[in-house]
Structures are given as C-alpha cells and as structure tokens.
C-alpha cells in the first residue's frame, strides 16, 4: 500500500536522526524506507479497523483515536497533540482550541449545507493539515479524515491524485500547489485534485 503524496524515493535510504528513533516503538527501524513501510502497514490496519465500525468524524476523541490507530504501532506519541513548534501549523498551545473550532465549523457547514459535501470534506481536511496537530503523519491523517467525512456525507472516498501514478513527483507537486491555493481561500484546485 503506497501513498504517492508521501513516498519520497530520494530519501528512502536516509538514516533516521537519534531523536526520531527514541520515539519509535519498533527497534529495527533505522532508515526512512523502513519507517515508511512500518507506517503504511499501520495505516492499512487502521483502515481495516475503520471498516468495522460506525463513526462520527466530527468528534475530537474520534480524530485522536484515528491518529493512534494509524500510527500507534510505530510511534509512542501517536494520537497526542504535538508540544513543540514546527515550521508549519499553528503554535502548539493553540492546537486543542483550533481543532475544536474546525470541528464546530464543519458541523455548521453540514447542518446549513454551506458548501457541497465534497467541499465540506476537503475544507475540513485542509484545516486539519494547516493546524498540523500531531508531530508527524498530518497529511496522511487529514486525507483519511477527508475521505471519511465525504463518506459520512454520502459521497465516495477521494482519490487524491491517484489517477496519475506515472509520476508521483508531479502528483505531489500538484497536491502542494492545490494546498497553497486553499491556504489563500481558493479551494477549487484542491477539490479537483481530491477527485482526480
């Protein structure tokens, strides 16, 4: 199970930093490639878990539990909000408040049909990745949440650019460009990319 928006072949053999390895659960992982493989297996297990239960995506407890399910076999901090600054995302102290506001906004959009179901799911996914609540895995987490919310709203899962499997680098560049447009409040490209 590969994620073309995440795979980075040029960094596959990069050794992990000592501080990264301290938070790992599997002790055999020393290279980025091994980490990517372990995370993808964990994410596949989370997808199986999701298939067997009813859920409300617009619930903070569910979102944290989902992140734990996606990364909890790999990282000790899975499901815990980050406590350190990043070059992207909000300040760490704002995370709980901003996630709660994102959930409330999405509930309002759903209740009032403010946007189409696809746009609601994409806007919520984008908001989560912009908040960057966890130390790692935010992109994969937010895309899965977008898929789940789309399904909750009666739509199929998104493809997130998987139509272009020929050039993963081109797919990732299109995704990043669509995210930047959404950062500027233009969601058309991100919605189109999500369905491409």
How would you explain this protein's 3D organization?
- The longest helix has 20 residues, at 32-51.
- The protein has helices at residues 18-22, 32-51, 60-71, 95-112, 117-131, 138-152, 168-183, 188-194.
- The protein is mostly helical and 196 residues long.
- The model has no long low-confidence stretch (mean pLDDT 91).
- It has one domain (9-194): Fido-like domain (Fic-like fold), CATH 1.10.3290.10.
- Helix 4 (95-112) packs antiparallel against helix 5, helix 5 (117-131) packs antiparallel against helix 6 (138-152) and helix 7 (168-183) runs antiparallel to helix 8 (188-194).
Q: Biggest sheet, in brief? A: none
CATH C-level name: Mainly Alpha
* CATH homologous superfamily assignment: Fido-like domain
- Specify the overall morphology: globular
Low-pLDDT segments: none
What is the typical, i.e. mean, pLDDT?
91
Secondary-structure content class: mainly alpha
Helical content, roughly?
A: 55-70%
Query: How much of the sequence is in beta strands?
Result: under 5%
Distance between the termini: 19 Å
How many β strands by DSSP? Answer: 0
What Rg is obtained from the alpha carbons, in whole angstroms? 16 Å
Would you identify the CATH architecture?
Orthogonal Bundle
So what's the oligomer here? Answer: single chain
The total of helices stands at 8
Number of domains: 1
CATH topology: Fic-like fold
Order of helices and strands: HHHHHHHH
């Amino acid at each position: 199970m590969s994620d073309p928006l995440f795979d980075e072949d040029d960094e596959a053999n990069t050794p992990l930093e000592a501080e990264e390895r301290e938070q790992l659960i599997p002790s055999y992982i020393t290279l980025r490639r091994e980490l990517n493989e372990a995370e993808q297996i964990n994410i596949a297990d989370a997808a199986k878990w999701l298939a067997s239960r009813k859920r409300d995506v617009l619930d903070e407890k569910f979102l944290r539990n989902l992140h734990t399910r996606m990364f909890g076999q790999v990282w000790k901090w899975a499901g815990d909000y980050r406590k350190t600054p990043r070059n992207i995302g909000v300040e760490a102290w704002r995370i709980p408040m901003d996630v709660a506001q994102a959930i409330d906004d999405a509930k309002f959009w759903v209740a009032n049909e403010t946007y189409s179901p696809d746009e609601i799911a994409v806007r919520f996914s984008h908001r989560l990745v912009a908040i960057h609540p966890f130390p790692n895995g935010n992109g994969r987490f937010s895309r899965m949440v977008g898929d789940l919310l789309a399904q909750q709203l009666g739509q199929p899962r998104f493809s997130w650019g998987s139509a272009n499997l020929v050039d993963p680098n081109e797919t990732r560049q299109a995704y990043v460009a669509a995210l930047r447009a959404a950062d500027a409040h233009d969601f058309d490209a991100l919605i189109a990319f999500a369905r491409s």
